[in-house]
């Protein structure tokens, strides 16, 4: 969702992945792979994600830490709320596009009645 709106910068890709899959834990390597960003690129902004509490460590397996989105973070809550609002807007817009125009419906019904009278 975020990449559709804000483009496919590495930061947006990572946040989009983590918010979309908020129940999953990842290693940094997996985050880079799943978000389709280079690991070295991920490391250039990882400290910002930690500083703003966007990601949190969940557990350690051997020497490797697992991370996930920090749903307790005010920043993440704001991003999630934004995502929900955007989805609502998109759904409303799409439903407006699919509704038939009431004038056209009326005229088509009127035309059917006139044709039926003409046939009699």
Mean pLDDT, nearest integer?
86
The class by helix and strand makeup works out as mainly alpha
Query: Would you identify the CATH H-level superfamily?
Result: Winged helix-like DNA-binding domain superfamily/Winged helix DNA-binding domain
Molecular shape: elongated
Spatial ordering of strands, largest sheet: 1-2
Say how many strands there are.
2
CATH class: Mainly Alpha
Could you tell me the strand content as a percent range? Answer: 5-15%
Query: What's the end-to-end separation, in Å?
Result: 56 Å
Count of the domains:
1
Low-confidence stretches: none
Largest sheet: 2 strands, antiparallel
Q: Helical content, roughly? A: 55-70%
Description:
This protein is mainly α. It has a single domain (2-119), classed as Orthogonal Bundle (Arc Repressor Mutant, subunit A), CATH 1.10.10.10. Helix content is 67%, strand content 11%. The protein is built from six helices and two strands. It has helices at residues 2-6, 10-20, 28-35, 39-51, 74-98, 102-119, and strands at 55-61, 64-69. The protein has a two-stranded antiparallel ribbon. Helix 2 packs across helix 3 (28-35). The longest helix has 25 residues, at 74-98. The chain starts with a helix and ends with a helix. The mean pLDDT is 86.
Layout of secondary structure:
Layout: H1 2-6, H2 10-20, H3 28-35, H4 39-51, E1 55-61, E2 64-69, H5 74-98, H6 102-119
Antiparallel strand pairs: 1-2
């Amino acid at each position: 969702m975020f990449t559709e709106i804000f483009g496919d910068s590495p930061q947006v890709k990572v946040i989009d992945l983590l918010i979309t899959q908020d129940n999953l834990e990842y290693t940094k390597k997996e985050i880079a792979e799943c978000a389709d960003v280079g690991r070295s690129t991920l490391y250039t902004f990882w400290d910002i994600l930690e500083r703003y509490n966007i990601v949190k460590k969940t557990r350690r397996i051997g020497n490797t830490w697992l991370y996930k989105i920090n749903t307790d973070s005010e920043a993440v809550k704001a991003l999630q709320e934004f995502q929900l609002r955007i989805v609502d807007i998109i759904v409303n817009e799409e439903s407006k596009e699919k509704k038939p125009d009431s004038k056209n419906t009326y005229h088509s019904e009127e035309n059917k009645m006139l044709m039926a009278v003409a046939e009699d």
